[in-house]
Amino acid sequence: MPNGMLLAAGRGTRLGPLTEYVPKPLLPVANEPVMAQGIRALRAVDITTIGVNLCYRAEQILNTFDDGAAYDAALHWVVETEARGTAGGMKRLQHLLDDDLIVVVAGDAMLDVDLAPLLAAHRAAGAFASLATLAVEDPSRYGVVVADADGRLRAFQEKPAPGTELSRLANTGIYCFEPAIFDLIPVDEFCDFALHVFPRILQLGLPFYAFPAQGYWTDVGTPADYLQANLDFLAGRIRVPGDGVRVGANFLAADAVVEGELCECVVGARAIVPAGSTLTRCVVWPDAVLPAALTLDGAICTPHGIYTLDGLDARVLAPVG
After folding, report:
1. How many CB atoms lie within 10 A of CB 41?
2. How confident is the model at residue 309 (pLDDT cuts 50, 70, 90)?
3. Which residue ranges make up each domain of the chain?
4. For residue 17, how many other CB atoms are within 10 A of its CB?
5. Which of 60, 88, 178, 260 gives 20 to 30 Å between its CA and that of 246?
6. pTM score, whole prediction
7. pLDDT digits (tens, 9 = 90+) for 32-65
8. Angle between the 34-43 and 58-65 helix axes, to the nearest 10 degrees?
């Protein structure tokens, strides 16, 4: 039976003030933490043993997911005092994983991806390593891959400058590895898949393939990406069970208090939107209490501040009031 690995140690620095209080894997989309979708994707291909590496605000993530029983999974945690990179974190969980395929998913990405085709293609190709790709409009925001017509990987290019991209196929951070991958990861050292392990695989000439991702994926790397993930949920572009009910074009937690006007908004538990407020394309986090007579379009409302994105441009993220 394949093993699962969720990478959840990062700080999410590009999200700015949103991750000062909440780690990226716990950002709410449809009033559920982002990482829940990664667990569901692994469980959908019958993976029950899942390792998770943590560092930044690890206790919050542990308290939220505990042993994984709520998702019918067995979560095994390793808490790093200093992040050892994507591969280094997985290495620390090697002793907990069976001698079988390892399927890696970023615990801080929002996805609705069927992993079964990736596993099937990996096995059919006799691959040592495989990754899922997604065609993107702006390759400069991602690491992109260069592959042959049959999908065999030949090169990587990290966040190419506009116009210099060798490909528009973004690396989604969804990987499938044979267990011998651990032989290429040093013990107790910082080691990153993209920076260290993947170049070594190519250097050794091991069969390394790229296959198209089957479904929805975004790394929610910026506030604009995060807001868009919630809007995509409202538009039906991503399947998320969610914690709440649909009311018109909105999605509300059962105990949210909404007296103002909403259009395309997600409102979390115990949040209060008072009378006289008008919110359009907004996310309201749990426990956020908004001022009266507030008009917002494209904002993220948290208990610690309200952040606007003018035209969904993260460069102008700014607190209101």
Report:
1. 23
2. confident
3. 3-131+170-207, 244-319
4. 15
5. 60
6. 0.92
7. 999 999 999 999 999 999 999 999 999 999 999 9
8. 50
